[in-house]
Amino acid sequence: MAASRDAEIWKDVQTYYGQVLKKSGDLQTSACVTTARLVPRHIQEALRNVHEEVTLRYYGCGLVIPECLENCWILDLGSGSGRDCYALSQLVGETGHVTGIDMTESQVEVAKKYIEYHMEKYGFQTPNVTFLHGYIEKLEEIGIKDESYDIVISNCVINLVPDKQAVLQEVYRVLKHGGELYFSDVYASLELPEEIRTHKILWGECLGGALYWKDLAVLAQKIGFCPPRLVTANLITVQNKELERVIGDCRFVSATFRLFKLPKTGPAERCQVIYNGGITGHEKELIFDANFTFKEGEIIEVDKETAAILKNSRFAKDFLIRPIGETLPTCSGCSALESKGIITDPFMLAGQSDSMKSRCSPDVAGGCCGITYS
């Protein structure tokens, strides 16, 4: 029965994204056009280099381009028309590689159509991007090998899959130790009732399959990831009276999280860290998540989980890390971070940021990438 229900959902989603939606303006909610944080200039330029048709056919719900990407191998789950893949292929460079996977064949066809266009535009002799047709909870079936990627990204897609644990387990399998899943998705304020979970339009609009936000941490721990790191969050609005009636008191948020896969080491400890600067687009300041912003040369005290991530991920070379109490090099403008509560609730963060939306500059990511869709 569950398999039959899953197959029905897959078919409905493929129809919605392959035939019903023709452009982002056809969406009935703001799930796929929420405001994110400031977009670094080098990413804006990479996005501007993406072909117009690829951008027009893209329906993501956040900007899922993390930092420190040079030479990385990146896997994009639910790559759609390939917008993020093409931007990332430019950012990782010719020695890096980006693989996009999508279950909607018409979207994969749009993405493949422009490989030569983008490689010529970037000046790459050999294509560094590949697009595959398949299901993101069945990566092994399309040849994705164990521990083969540095980063996995996903932009408003995991909610479209009925078996979210299967997706996260596959991500954990294909990530290298020290790698991360950096993803935007939609979360619900409560366990969804049957009427919402079986509503075809709400599934297509990324709401019907939304995970109760507290369940993400439960799944992450069960699979072996570090606790989720909340990056951004924005409340979702619905522009359809009938859908509002079905949703009732349930609220939805679009949020970006980081999930790291770390090697099994001894117990971590609180540390003091200094960001060395130099990450492209984040030379002076690295906004790691909603709780930690690292400024170049500034001494910051971090909890044991953050320390373990910085020590064992691709960020290790960009930080000087020392145990609490050990003398660190002195520098001008250094300060220690006072102890504070860690924000994990995306609805709390969204509430804090909602009042700032009206003051956003044009460089803020609207429509997922700083582009206004009509």
TrEMBL record:
Q: Which InterPro entries match?
A: Arsenite_MeTrfase-like, Methyltranfer_dom, SAM-dependent_MTases_sf
EC assignment: the record states 2.1.1.137
**Keyword match Methyltransferase:** yes
Classify the source by domain of life: Eukaryota
- GO cellular-component term (any): cytosol
Q: For this UniProt entry, what is the primary localization, expressed as one broad class?
A: cytoplasm
What is a single molecular function from GO for this protein? arsenite methyltransferase activity
- Asked if Cytoplasm is a keyword of the record, the answer is yes
Query: Which reaction is recorded as catalysed by this protein?
Result: arsenic triglutathione + [thioredoxin]-dithiol + S-adenosyl-L-methionine + 2 H2O = methylarsonous acid + [thioredoxin]-disulfide + 3 glutathione + S-adenosyl-L-homocysteine + H(+); arsenic triglutathione + 3 [thioredoxin]-dithiol + 3 S-adenosyl-L-methionine = trimethylarsine + 3 [thioredoxin]-disulfide + 3 glutathione + 3 S-adenosyl-L-homocysteine + 3 H(+); arsenic triglutathione + 2 [thioredoxin]-dithiol + 2 S-adenosyl-L-methionine + H2O = dimethylarsinous acid + 2 [thioredoxin]-disulfide + 3 glutathione + 2 S-adenosyl-L-homocysteine + 2 H(+)
Any Pfam family from its record, for instance, is Methyltransf_31
One GO-annotated biological process of the protein: methylation
Q: Which CDD domains match?
A: AdoMet_MTases
Function of the protein: Catalyzes the transfer of a methyl group from AdoMet to trivalent arsenicals producing methylated and dimethylated arsenicals. It methylates arsenite to form methylarsonate, Me-AsO(3)H(2), which is reduced by methylarsonate reductase to methylarsonite, Me-As(OH)2. Methylarsonite is also a substrate and it is converted into the much less toxic compound dimethylarsinate (cacodylate), Me(2)As(O)-OH.
What name does this protein carry? Arsenite methyltransferase
Q: Which organism is it from?
A: Canis lupus familiaris (Dog)
